[in-house]
Amino acid sequence: MRIFLTTALLFSVCTLQAQHRAPAGEGDYKPAHAECVTDAQREAIQLRIENNRKMLAAQGRDVSVTAAKPTAVALTWPIQQTTSTYFNCVGISNYVDHDVAYPGFIQDWNCGTRSYDLASGYNHSGTDIFLWPFYWNQMDDGNASIVAAAAGIIIDKEDGNFDRNCAMGSGNWNAVYVQHSDGSVAWYGHMKTGSLTTKAIGDAVTAGEYLGLVGSSGSSTGPHLHFELHDAADNVIDPYTGPCNPGATWWSPAHTYNESQVNALMTHSAPVVFSSCPNPDIINACDTFHYGDPIYIYAYYRDELSGLVSTFTITRPDGTISDSWTYTSLTDYVASYRYWSNTIPAGVPYGEWKISVTYLGNTYVHKYYILGPTDEQDSHLGTVSTTSFYPNPVTDRLYLQDVPKGAQVQLLNAVGAVVSDCGVDAASVNVANLATGMYFLKIVHAGGTEMQKVWKQ
What we know:
Layout: E1 2-5, E2 19-20, E3 25-28, H1 39-58, E4 79-81, E5 90-94, E6 127-131, H2 135-141, E7 144-147, E8 152-158, E9 175-179, E10 185-189, E11 204-205, E12 210-213, E13 224-230, E14 236-237, E15 261-268, E16 288-290, E17 294-304, E18 309-315, E19 321-328, E20 333-343, E21 351-359, E22 362-371, H3 373-376, E23 388-390, E24 397-401, E25 408-412, E26 418-424, E27 428-430, E28 437-445, E29 448-456
Parallel strand pairs: 2-19, 16-22
Antiparallel strand pairs: 1-3, 3-20, 4-7, 5-6, 6-13, 7-12, 8-9, 8-11, 9-10, 10-13, 13-14, 15-17, 17-20, 18-19, 18-21, 21-22, 23-24, 24-27, 25-26, 25-28, 28-29
């Protein structure tokens, strides 16, 4: 992680004309390279798959891959997001390396260098799909499910291996291998321990069916899915098509080389602390503010491209524009972020505010709330809070951090009735079935009672 900080520039709450504004801080991230699977591990995997074919054939199952197939299967995207916290939760760090020479001879399907090889002779042979932003937090929260890209049968699986690796190594990964109707096999590697589907070898799966969660098992430098495709003759296949890999794409719909977008737009009470591997980041996410509170607006990008303009707009509760500014990207990044900061001035309208960013013709919106004087003196509120939580407003599940040990956690409605008794030392609260509105998170512990407002979308 490289972080670049500049002097903070506080934005006005009354500027209407969008002008370029430098961020208070910015940074980018690209996962380090690792030999995902050694030659010895590949041989062992391929041997297990062949033995499993023989076992299933002996049971009367037709798993032959010798017959010619007229067309390749159509692949759907193998990651499915489980919460609405992010607009998109992944990026791509590496494609298949089509240049067999090494080291330092890189050629991906688009004739670019978005891949790698190693002095050991390893040429990257899959597509690496990593979590962004907050990759360890997303892994711990189970935010990214790995799903079958095409229908088939489970031809092999392995689980139980350590899943918080931060560097190259010889350890085995957790993985599921699915054979398709044309004899091709998709490898889904680096999964989170204990998250794999309960289906057994020989069981059928449909396209989009759950296979496991993204993890960092095996030779891995952080949470990501290594998606690798083999044809019926066990040759590595790159599912992308381009000038350096002509032919028909396996993806349906087809994917472009750079899929530039805003993965998340968030408000925070303090700058994000990006932790060292394998520790979760300290997000400091916050969507409710009082007069005088600092507010940090972060935009997290995937495939950010040089020269593209982001237009940010802050909208008051009555729909009028409070502030607007632009930022022009200076270089290309696989994954990046930048933020702007301010202090909530006294006297601004309280209620639901919106921050939006328009980028490449798409507009992304995030809601936050400014609480007025009545809210600040609300008799429901208890002792000074030590517990933090995110997201707020929340749609599906509220995640808690720094809950005092032995604390009783409850969620109350606006009139103080308990709507969810979460028990002792709860780490999250399921609010998916609750009506939209304001609630109170009640934390009772030895130091007193905390009450914090939660907004359900």
